[in-house]
Amino acid sequence: MAHYLDLGKPAELIEFARHKECRNCLPQVIRLDLVLTDKGWIIAEVDSVPAGSGSHPGLIEPIPVSVKRSLAERRECWTVLPRFSPDGGDIVISAESATYRPEMEYLVRQLNARFPERSWKVVAAENYSPQPGRDVYRFFELFDLPNVPRISDLVAAVGRAEVSDAAVQAVSSREKMWFAFFWLKPLREFWRRELGDKYFRRLREMIPYTWILDPTSVAAARSHSAA
C-alpha cells in the first residue's frame, strides 16, 4: 500500500509526510464530496484542503435562523478552527490558491466577530514565517510547496511544538486509492474489524467500487511478449 501511495509524488512531498511531526497526524478539517444518486449518497472525494468552507456559511447567512438549524449550521467547517486553535492563528494561502482568498477572508471576519478574544488572519504563504503560539491552517496544495520557500520553517516550528498545522503535510490523506484499498478482498476483515460491522456495511454502500490500474505491470507484460 505504501508503495502505491508514494507513486508519482515528488520526493520532497514524501519526505515531508515522513517527517516525525507529520507522519502520525491527520488533517483537522476534512470534507467529503458527496454525490446524490438514485441509490443514495456516494462519496466522490475526501478533501483535506476544502474550498467552500468560507463561501458556504456566506451563502446560508441570509437564511432564517429556523431554516439554518435544519441545515446543521453548527456543524459548518468554520466552527472547527476555534476548537483546533483556541487563541486564533493564521490561514496561510499561496498565490496559486488566491481565488479562494475572498472566502477565507470572510471566514476570518466571522471567526473574529464570534470570538473577539482571539485573532485570526489571512496571510500570504510565499513569505510566511511562523510565529510561536500562532497556529496555522495551510490552505494550499502540497504540489505548490516549491513556490513556498519557507515551508521548512513551518515544519520545524511544528516539530518544536511551537505551532500546530490544522492541514498537516499528509500527502496520502486525500488519495483516491484508499477507495481501492477499501475494496481489496485481503483487507476486508481488517476494515470490518477497525470500522465495526455497521460502518463497514454503510461505507460499502457509499464508496464506489474502485480498482488500481498499474501501467508498470502492463508495460512489463508487453516487453515480455515482444521478447
Which key terms come to mind for this protein?
227 residues, alpha/beta, 2 domains, three-stranded parallel beta sheet, two-stranded antiparallel ribbon, 11 helices, 40% helix, 14% strand, globular
Fold and architecture overview:
With 227 residues, the protein is α/β, with parallel strands linked by helices. It has two domains: 26-36 and 48-159, no CATH class; 177-226, no CATH class. Helix content is 40%, strand content 14%. It is globular, with a radius of gyration of 20 Å. The two termini are 30 Å apart.
In short:
With 227 residues, this protein is an alpha/beta fold. It has 11 helices and 5 strands.
Topology readout:
Blueprint: H1 2-6, H2 11-18, E1 31-37, E2 40-47, H3 55-60, H4 65-70, H5 80-84, E3 88-93, H6 101-114, E4 119-124, E5 135-139, H7 151-159, H8 177-183, H9 188-195, H10 197-206, H11 215-226
Parallel strand pairs: 3-4, 3-5
Antiparallel strand pairs: 1-2
Helix pairs in contact: 9-10
Task: Categorize the overall geometry.
Answer: globular
Radius of gyration, whole Å: 20 Å
Number of separate strands: 5
Structural class: alpha/beta
Report low-confidence residues grouped into runs of 5 or more: 67-75
First-to-last CA distance: 30 Å
Average of per-residue pLDDT values: 74
Give the SSE string.
HHEEHHHEHEEHHHHH
Q: Number of domains in the coordinates?
A: 2
Major sheet: order of its strands? Answer: 4-3-5
Supply the number of helical segments.
11
Major beta-sheet overview = 3 strands, parallel
Q: Please give the share of residues in helix.
A: 25-40%
Beta-sheet strand percentage?
5-15%
